[in-house]
Design a protein that fits this description.
The complex is a heterodimer. Chain A is mainly alpha-helical. Chain A has a single domain, classed as Orthogonal Bundle (Non-ribosomal Peptide Synthetase Peptidyl Carrier Protein, Chain A). Chain A has 3 helices and no strands. In chain A, helix 1 crosses helix 2 and helix 1 crosses helix 3. The longest helix of chain A has 16 residues. Chain B has a 9-stranded mixed sheet, with helices on both faces. Chain B has a 5-stranded mixed sheet with strand order 4-3-5-6-7, sandwiched between helices. In chain B, strands 17, 18, 20, 21 and 22 form a 5-stranded antiparallel sheet that branches. In chain B, about 30% of the residues lie in helices and about 30% in strands. By secondary structure, chain B is an alpha/beta fold. The mean pLDDT of chain B is about 95. Chain B starts with 8 loop residues before the first helix and ends in a 5-residue tail after the last helix. Chain B is globular, with a radius of gyration of 23 Å. Classes of the chains: A mainly alpha, B alpha/beta. The interface between A and B is medium-sized, with 25 and 32 residues.
Chain lengths: ~80, ~500
């Protein structure tokens, strides 16, 4: 599965209707860039947790961990690897 | 006989350090700080600022999250006779810069990798934290500050696109602190928490009641504020006894945080303010925290809290929650015919004025013969014989979203600065689950490819995150009324339904 594409599609569908994939690059700042707000972040976390079967702990989640699509994919991959151990 | 309450905010801390110096003033994650240490650090900061020329009434900007160090910096500024100006670190750089300029900050506190640093604006050099703490706090003499002197300036959304600084005196803030401390029985055993940053007036509750009552201020980790399940965990594990926040945060804990699945035997008081708590939600919330007394507090930043209402036990959620009756230090009047009108608020908690804006300050107040000065809240209220005042709506285009006060005009002004945007109009609509939602309509130059992402990124360079529109809709023409004015009612009909 391609985490980046799935996360991108989720954000486009829910927060940028009408935009194309190329409007949202991997490194675009999602919070600093005004794409997601705190409520949007909550929705995204809920989506990621149910889609990939992971659960975040309080210390793992700050808006920096969700800074960009690139960063989110890294965090999700690490959580998935931890599950596999 | 009871001693009168202090009316200088830093006096609370001096008294607490004398009375219960070893008690825990602040708990932040695993770190605890005693009143004695907090005062020592604040006094060191005051000396560092005073020695470098901070005079009475000079502004000190705190570009800091709500942390132990930030609270020390806040008290240090007050001890030195200064005025603190809280600024949120994640505001866009442009907004931070214009706020510093507007208030004429003499010193600026910033934080990097959890170490504080102070910029001496006049000398153009930075003072490291270690350097600050080297001072001998014992030699410090506080300058004479009067209760009517400004203690802090809170910047709020301005309808013309420029944020306004609300200047609050020691006396005004202390009126609320002394009353709330007494009314809600805050004492040394209490563990109080408030997730609002220092730039919102809700923060005066926990920061100053901690010092007034010798209670512990338990810092809500900023990273967790909008993640409801972590907040319910926090409430439970940190054994919070008194909580103050906007209703949105409480509703989040109820709906998404599993509030009802845990117990909170220590939690005895919950205060909420800043927006309307949907009655049905509030009824469910009350059932989930049966030990806690719930209170609706009301008041714009310009007046802090002026009215209050205790939610009766077994509230059934069938009618709106009143904002209640005036606090003992406040006076309220209705400007209107019959039992409905604009709420005017007077009394001790009123702001000194908008910083550097004499005309707007004059326009904000009404003089009532024989009764003195009142602030025009812009809120329409009605009188209900049982519960007191009930909020109906706004007289202008100000909206509250998740407790944050937003002027739609400020969003429009930001959008209009985008080079491809010809015209912009913003409207707020209510959604049943999520509350207020802001849609921005923009008319762009034809043939200019502009994405939603592009517009949002542009706004984020100007507006703080809480003010960003929820969605952007591109229009070929903005609907107009008969006199060529934007037809906001027609625009609200164009808001896409979920």
């Amino acid at each position: 599965m391609d985490i980046k594409s799935e996360v991108r599609q989720y954000i486009l569908d829910h927060h940028l209707p009408g935009d194309r994939s190329e409007d949202l690059a991997d490194d675009v700042p999602l919070f600093g860039g005004g794409i997601l707000d705190s409520i949007g972040a909550l929705g995204l976390i809920t989506f990621i947790e149910s889609r990939y079967g992971i659960e975040f702990l309080p210390r793992e989640l700050d808006l920096r961990a969700l800074a960009s699509i690139e960063r989110i994919a890294e965090v999700v991959e690490r959580k998935l690897a931890d599950l596999g151990d | 006989m009871l001693e009168p309450d202090p009316v200088l905010l830093h006096q609370y801390l001096i008294d607490a350090a004398n009375r219960c110096g070893q008690a825990v003033a602040i708990a932040e994650d695993e770190k605890v700080t005693s009143f004695e240490l907090l005062l020592e650090n604040a006094a060191s900061i005051a000396v560092a600022l005073g020695k470098r020329g901070l005079g009475k009434g000079d502004r000190v900007a705190l570009i800091l999250s709500k942390t132990t160090d930030a609270i020390a910096a806040l008290f240090g500024t007050l001890l030195a006779g200064g005025v603190y100006v809280p600024v949120q670190p994640h505001w866009p750089a442009q907004r931070v810069a214009s706020t510093l300029e507007d208030c004429g900050a003499r010193f600026v506190f910033t934080e990097e990798d959890s170490a504080l640093s102070i910029l001496d604006v006049q000398a153009g050099r930075s003072i490291g934290w270690a350097e600050v703490l080297q001072h001998d706090a014992g030699r410090f003499r506080a300058p004479a500050v009067s209760p009517q002197d400004t203690a802090f300036i809170l910047f709020t959304s301005g309808s013309t696109g420029q944020p306004k600084g609300v200047a609050i005196s020691h006396r005004a803030a202390a009126a609320f602190v002394n009353w709330s401390g007494r009314e809600f029985g805050i004492g040394p055993e209490d563990r109080i928490a408030c997730p609002s940053p220092l730039s919102f007036d809700l923060s005066t509750f926990d920061v100053f009641n901690m010092a007034r009552s010798g209670a512990t201020c338990v810092i809500v980790p900023e990273r967790n504020v909008w993640f409801p399940r972590f907040l319910t965990e926090f409430l439970h594990e940190r054994r919070i006894t008194a909580w103050y926040s906007v209703p949105s945060i409480l509703a989040g804990m109820l709906n998404e945080g599993g509030l009802a699945r845990r117990s909170y035997p220590d939690l005895r008081v919950i205060l909420f303010a800043g927006e309307v708590f949907a009655p049905a939600q509030l009824a469910r919330f009350q059932a989930a925290v049966p030990n806690a007394a719930l209170y609706n507090l009301y008041g714009p930043t310009e007046t802090n809290v002026v009215t209050w209402y205790q939610v009766p036990p077994g509230f059934d959620g069938s009618r709106p929650v009143p904002i209640g009756r005036a606090c003992p230090y406040a006076r309220v009047e209705l400007d209107g015919a019959g039992d409905q009108g604009e709420l005017l608020a007077g009394g001790e908690s009123l702001m000194n004025g908008y910083w550097n804006r004499p005309e707007e300050t004059a326009a904000a107040f009404a003089e009532i013969d024989g009764k003195g000065r009142y602030y025009r809240t812009g809120d329409r209220v009605t009188m209900n014989p049982e519960g007191g005042l009930v909020f109906i709506g706004r007289m202008d285009r100000q909206v509250k979203r998740r407790g944050f006060r937003i002027e739609l005009g400020e969003i429009e002004a930001a959008l209009s600065r985008h080079p491809a945007v010809f015209e912009a109009a913003a409207v707020s609509t209510e959604e049943p689950e999520s509350g207020a939602s802001i849609t921005a309509f923009v008319r762009i130059q034809s043939g200019d490819p502009v994405s939603q992402a592009g517009i949002k990124t542009h706004c984020a360079r100007i507006l703080p995150p809480y003010m960003l529109p929820d969605r952007i809709v591109f229009l070929a023409a903005v609907p107009k009324g008969s006199r060529g004015k934007t037809d906001y009612a027609a625009l609200r009909d164009l808001v896409p339904r979920k």
